[in-house]
Amino acid sequence: MLENLGRLKGYLLAVLVCAIALPIAWELDAPSSCFLLATMVTSLYGGRGPGYLTVVVSSILFDLLFLLPRFQLLHSHESYLRLAIFIAAMILATELIAAKRRSEESLRRTQTKLSQAMQVAALSEFSASVIHEISQPLSAMVANGQTCVRWLSTNPPNIENAPAAERVVRDGRDARGVIQGLRALFRRSPPQKVLVDLGPIVNEIVSLIRGRAESEKIAVEVQLPRDLPGIIGDRLQLQQVLMNLSLNAMDSMRTVTDRPKTLVISMREQDGMVLTEVRDQGIGISDFEKVFDAFFTTKEDGMGMGLSICKSIIEAHEGRLWGSPGPVAGTVFSFAIPRAIEGEQ
């Protein structure tokens, strides 16, 4: 119904524009210019059909009122040639404007599809980040829960090893914190920053990965100065960064057999920043430019979200995360965050 009404308005526009162009063309004795302008206006605002109606009406008026002798259908060859050129010019103008309208409509449809594709990509990226970040505390909860079951199934039940149950509770809280952090990220809320000592976070990470490190024969070395200054940051997010970098380092050494496998986590103060380095003796990375892009991964089972999220977290702490080749082999991932100013919290 609305489409038909729009077409009717276009044809009414053609008649109206011709009615306006006629007295002006008569007064100025310039029918070619006036009717060509009328055709262009109708084609531009009414479309191709109304444009051709203007061509027909203008041609009839041109033939009857402006070709000599007037008010007759038969004219000289020169007059017919003039009429033919006039009609060709109006048809050309109508087709050019119609082509421009089709191009604009095609561009608009392409932009709409691109916008929809970007929304889907953003939703996919957010979903992937949720899956990636939640999987770590859930895996820890399963491992600690299985330990609790094993201890409770002994006769008599070993109820003295309560720390495993406490770790289940802690990991559950971490999972809830990850969800809250991702919700805050989705709402573009700033991280919950407090004064953070990175030393205890490193020790927690080492305790969590020690079992896997022993089974894969990876030596874990921690280098922490006693006077390491604190930073202002979100403790849980920084823990996620260190955990991601440590697990990536261990993954890179999984297939190494010709040299010792060592994971080194070191921290030091440098130029007003707290510099953290995670070094491995793994297979290395060839492209440090793409490695922080979302969905870029060198692992067969990887999602390509870990380093992208880590970079976002460090940048939210006014810091910088980068990667470089190791001194002998492997990779060094480093991040630097401004040290806390005395009295700051």
Describe this structure in words.
- The chain has 345 residues and is α+β, with helices and mostly antiparallel strands.
- It folds into 2 domains: 108 residues, no CATH class; 154 residues, 2-Layer Sandwich (Heat Shock Protein 90).
- It contains 8 helices and 7 strands.
- The strands form 2 sheets. Strands 2-4-5-7-6 form a 5-stranded mixed β-sheet. The protein has a two-stranded antiparallel sheet with strand order 1-3.
- A hairpin with a 2-residue loop joins β4 and β5.
- α1 runs antiparallel to α2, α3 runs antiparallel to α4 and α4 runs antiparallel to α5.
- It is rod-shaped and about 120 Å long.
- 28% of the residues are buried.
**Secondary-structure element order, as H and E?**
HHHHHEHEEHEEHEE
Which CATH architecture of the largest domain is right? 2-Layer Sandwich
Q: Indicate the percent of residues in helices.
A: 55-70%
How much strand content do the residues show?
A: 5-15%
The span between the termini is: 65 Å
CATH class of the largest domain: Alpha Beta
> How much is the average pLDDT?
81
Question: What name goes with the CATH superfamily of the largest domain?
Answer: Histidine kinase-like ATPase, C-terminal domain
Give a quick account of the main beta sheet: strands, pairing sense, barrel closure: 5 strands, mixed
The total count of strands amounts to 7
Shape: rod-shaped
Low-confidence stretches: none
